[in-house]
TrEMBL record:
Organism: Caldinitratiruptor microaerophilus
InterPro entries registered for this protein in UniProt: Amidase (IPR000120), Amidase_CS (IPR020556), Amidase_dom (IPR023631), AS_sf (IPR036928)
PROSITE patterns per record: AMIDASES (PS00571)
GO MF terms held by the record: catalytic activity
Pfam families: Amidase
Protein name (record): Amidase
Region annotation (Disordered) ranges: 51-87, 227-249
Domain Amidase: residue ranges: 116-540
Length: 558
């Protein structure tokens, strides 16, 4: 691809490009097309149709018998502090870091006040925000008002459920009525939604206290959290390192006790990457399990919404609150929402855990690989059965991933890209411009390769219950670092970070990462599980079993 060809294509598409931009787009587009051509060599795609509406494929997991879905509350038990108010049992830091699963009974029993919990979180935001840059908007006044309302409801005996009075944060892609949604870009300056995103509305209905909107990689198109407009969020484990992205601020906020959980989005790993690099649990549900209405899209056929939390149980509680069919989201799945948390106590005896023989353990830093394999060994000691599996088609993912995202993102951003290209930073602008000029045949080829990938994963998951892999092949890179060395090979940081998470966005399968130790320098390592469509229960059960054997969550050294 040469700049003159790009110039003619851009003129035909009414896309203004400077000479420098034509050069950058030519390099980017040429690299994508060459990679796609190599990926398709020798692959028989005769029967493969493109993935255009990625409904769940393959064996679905049967939800456990309905026992409630964790949304409904019940009257608080006897005892507590009586009608005169709620009393605090813990210091501010303890309240800010207490798991939701432990905090909820205290709130329900009137032993802790939602106001005190919210103030504890807001105090940490005030103290740590200058160091971590986790937020774009802090909703302090609205949070205090919500906390007071939650306190009054609980005192009246109107307890809504385990998120009632619990501080939750949002990646700044989620619409909150009357609050700007920036998507981490200047291109959306002035956008103030009139209604909440569906997931936000469901959090409010569950009684959650919304405390802030988080920083992110610009328009969620990146894995580091770099942002030319708002600056990078910094990793609470080492403030000279990335949190990972694109849900960078959400990970920093949850890990630092600035909220008890947060909602992120995942198109190539944007929930799981930052969760792994900051020592959190990150859950990407099945495609369509959580509504994306009111969430600024990146790539329609790949976007997933889900939680980041400090424990598996907390992720289960948040998922129960936000999951469910939404008629306003055409990709939303009409399936019952099981009681995810109730299934976590089931043991893993006989659980078949697939361990890939290729790709997922290639170009992985040795201490990361060792930590993940040690975690699998822990599950074997608990009665799980390790099963070698082969997923060779995964090798096409690096070639198809960015072109699919860029083409779909360019469609959503088309008007602004033509009229106000300066609202985007250089990195994202080049990718969007290249996506706008990607030939239709190349996009369809990428989606046909994706179809082959999905069928291969479905076949493997007919033989095993979950698959275990590293979440990210390296610990958190340093800010400004563009390359990393892994097993003698030089990798781009952004390519390395998405390498092991992006396949699960292309398959739409549920996936979770859970901390499984530390690499050199004390940086967190993430263990990833993925499973069958709609079988978040089994994926979470495997993660919870390891978490229970591992011991309590480790706080970063703030």
């Amino acid at each position: 691809m040469d700049p003159e060809t790009v110039r003619r294509m851009a003129e035909a598409a009414d896309l203004p490009l400077t000479p420098e931009e034509r050069e950058a787009v030519a390099r980017t587009l040429g690299a994508w097309l060459e990679a796609l051509e190599r990926a398709a060599e020798g692959v028989d795609l005769f029967d493969e149709e493109p993935v255009l509406a990625p409904a769940p494929l393959g064996p679905g997991g049967a939800p456990p018998p309905a026992a409630g879905n964790g949304r409904d509350g019940s009257p608080p038990p006897g005892g507590g502090s009586g009608p005169d108010g709620l009393r605090a049992l813990a210091g501010e830091d303890e309240l800010a870091f207490m798991p939701i699963s432990e905090l909820a009974p205290l709130l329900r029993g009137r032993q802790v006040s939602p106001v005190e919990v919210t103030e504890a979180v807001l105090a940490r935001i005030e103290a740590l925000e200058p160091q971590l840059n986790a937020h774009i908007t802090v909703l302090a006044d609205a949070a205090r008002e919500s906390a007071r309302a939650a306190e009054a409801e609980i005192l009246r005996g109107n307890y809504r459920g385990p998120l009632h009075g619990v501080p939750i944060g949002l990646k700044d892609l989620y619409d909150v009525a009357g609050v700007p949604t920036t998507a981490g870009t200047r291109a959306l300056d002035g956008y103030v939604p009139r209604q909440d995103a569906t997931a936000v509305r469901r959090l409010r209905e569950a009684g959650a206290v919304l405390v802030g909107k988080h920083n992110l990689h610009e328009i969620a198109f990146g894995a580091t959290g770099a942002n030319p407009h708002y600056g990078p969020s910094r990793n609470p484990w080492d403030r000279e390192r990335h949190t990972g992205g694109s849900s960078s601020g959400t990970a920093a906020a949850v890990a630092a006790g600035m909220c008890h959980a947060g909602l992120g989005s995942d198109t190539g790993g944007s929930i799981r990457i930052p969760a792994a690099l900051t020592g959190l649990v990150g859950l990407k549900p099945t495609y369509g399990r959580v509504s994306r209405r009111g969430v600024i899209p990146l790539a329609w056929s790949l976007d997933h919404a889900g939680p980041l939390s400090r424990t598996v149980a907390d992720a289960a509680l948040v998922l129960a609150a936000i999951a469910g069919h939404d008629p306003d989201d055409p990709t939303s799945i009409a399936a019952p929402v099981p009681d995810y948390a109730a299934a976590l106590d089931r043991d893993v005896r006989g659980l078949r855990i697939g361990v890939p023989e290729e790709y997922y353990f290639e170009y992985v830093q040795p201490d990361v690989r060792a930590a993940v394999l040690a975690a699998v060994q822990v599950l074997e000691e608990l009665g799980a059965v390790r099963v070698p599996v082969s997923l060779p088609t995964t090798a096409v993912v690096p070639a198809i991933h960015t072109p699919i995202i860029a083409a779909e993102a360019a469609s959503w951003h088309a008007r602004r890209l033509r009229e106000e290209p300066g609202g985007y930073g250089p990195e994202v602008r080049t990718r969007l411009q290249a996506g706008a000029l990607l030939p239709a045949a190349a996009y369809v080829l990428a989606q046909r390769l994706r179809s082959r990938l999905r069928r291969e994963y479905a076949a493997v998951l007919a033989r095993v219950d979950v698959v275990a892999t590293p979440a990210v092949p390296v610990p958190a890179p340093r800010l400004g670092e563009s390359e990393v060395q892994v097993e003698g090979r030089t990798l781009e940081v952004r390519s390395a970070l998405v390498r092991l998470t992006s396949p699960l966005d292309h398959t739409g399968l549920p996936a979770v990462t859970v901390p499984c130790g530390q690499a050199k320098g004390g940086l967190p390592v993430g263990l990833q599980f993925f499973g069958r469509p709609l079988d978040e229960v089994t994926v979470l059960r495997a993660a919870a079993a390891y978490e229970s054997a591992r011991g309590p969550w480790a706080r970063p050294p703030l």
